[in-house]
Amino acid sequence: MVSKKYFIIDFDSTFTQVEALDELARISLQDRADKEEIYKKIEDYTNQAMEGKLSFRESLAARVKLLEADKSHLKLLVKHLKTLVSTSFARNKNFFKQHANEVLIVSGGFKEFIAPVVLPYHIKSENIYANTFVFDKQGKIIGYDDTNPLSFEGGKVKLLKELKLPGEIHGIGDGYSDFQLKESGMIKKFYAFTENVERKSVTERADHITPSLDEVLFINKIPAAISYPKNRIVCLVAGENIPEASVKLLKKDGFSVKQVSELTKASIAEAGILLIGNKLTLTNELLSYATKLKVIGTAEGAGLPVELCTAHGVAIFESGKKPESLGKRIAKYINNGDTIKSINFPHLQLPSVNGHRFIHIHQNVPGVLAKVNQVFADNQLNITAQYLMTNSQIGYVITDISGQYDKQMLKTMKSIPHTIQLRFLY
Predict the structure, then answer these.
(1) Could you state, in order of their start, the residue ranges of all structural domains in the chain?
(2) Is the pLDDT confidence value at 201 over 90?
(3) Which segments constitute the ACT domain (predicted)?
(4) Are 372 and 360 in contact (CB under 8 A)?
């Protein structure tokens, strides 16, 4: 019998992009003349605790004392935090729905602001473990329940001992208190979550450094919103005159950005995305090593073997008028299959992915679409939408299906004569 997997997930800087108490301070202290000085103190206490330099209980008490917050401030905080759910968590809402019994939010933060943020993600209220505030009659925060195990140093370990979960436990978090779960021997694997912040004292001790929730799901073979973690797709930035705004956009979208001054066989071999400056040339020989390459973004004047790129199934986009436009076009192509403004692919503007999407790039010869559809028919899969455009070199067919599919089907589709490349998106 396969052991059930539980996922213990932190809230601050993990489920959300920020530290909630720091954000609460910016709301509650905004009219104070010395607010910047107090913000700095609160942030310092937060970081010292997260890095294991100060006990959590000391840090928590000091931060709560400095807040001067009340229930009206908490309402504003919740509204703010709902807009700051970590990107990879927001796009994997279906994972939380499908695994509602196995996902627990365990945080040294406070239930008053955590629950309203995570409940819309199908997290069960009984699976939210956090501290609670103490209020006076006017609704001002005057302290916290100091009997809660999560208010103590090592509180997450204490709580987990009490819960006695009957299965394999995986922890996801960014701080020292999350690593303590691994140190206690109570969890199988600890994932240092670095999408929002990377703490060296934590990543050095982690079983796995995970820049996104997609990475955790991929490792555990759990269906995710995207079929392959973006952090595993290398965006190689080579040469000059690549708009910095486009590079930042792709990095923010989750791709692993690496910058080089020149192209080599080794660097091009790992690239899924290539941004190439106007003083560099992509030779035929280098392209033969680019086995992972899906798309090229180019500054005007770069040397590219366009027809050969097309024959390899590599889409090309050029910089537009706005500095971020190149990054947006590439992100849409990788995330969605959209080819509008490509200089070598047929143009298709596609709706967002709903279900599973297959992108089949093939030589433009008769009969390929029929063979593609025969594969879906043989696997008794329902096609919910299909799009096809061609140019003189290639055919570009996108098929959306509902329901699950056998992975063997991918091999069958790749073996269709005249296939250049197959991509599949969840």
Answers:
(1) 5-219, 233-336, 356-425
(2) no
(3) 357-426
(4) yes
Q: pLDDT-based confidence at 42, cuts 50/70/90? A: confident
* Cα–Cα distance, 333 to 348 (Å, whole number): 10
Residue range 85-135, pLDDT digits in tens: 999 999 999 999 999 999 999 999 999 999 999 999 999 999 999 999 999
- 313/97 Cα distance (integer angstroms): 36
- Res 48 pLDDT > 50: yes
Per-residue DSSP letters for 240-283? S---HHHHHHHHHTT-EEEEESS--HHHHHTEEEEEE-TT-B--
Helix (H, G, I), strand (E, B) or coil at 119: helix
The confidence score (pLDDT) of residue 2 equals: 54
DSSP helix/strand/coil, 121: helix
Identify any residues that bridge with 104 across adjacent strands, giving them in sequence order. 8
Domain at 233-336: CATH architecture: 3-Layer(aba) Sandwich (3.40)
pTM, whole model, 2 decimals? 0.81
**Residue range 5-219, CATH number:** 3.40.50.1000
Residue 212 vs residues 20, 62, 224, 278, 407: alpha-carbon distances, Å? 20, 31, 11, 32, 24
Residue 308 CA to residue 310 CA, distance in Å, equals: 5
Domain formed by 356-425, architecture: 2-Layer Sandwich (3.30)
pLDDT tens track for 220-246 = 989 888 888 999 999 999 988 899 999
- In the chain, the percentage of residues whose pLDDT exceeds 90 is 73
CA distance 347 to 324: 20
Contact criterion met (CB below 8 Å) for 268 and 294: no
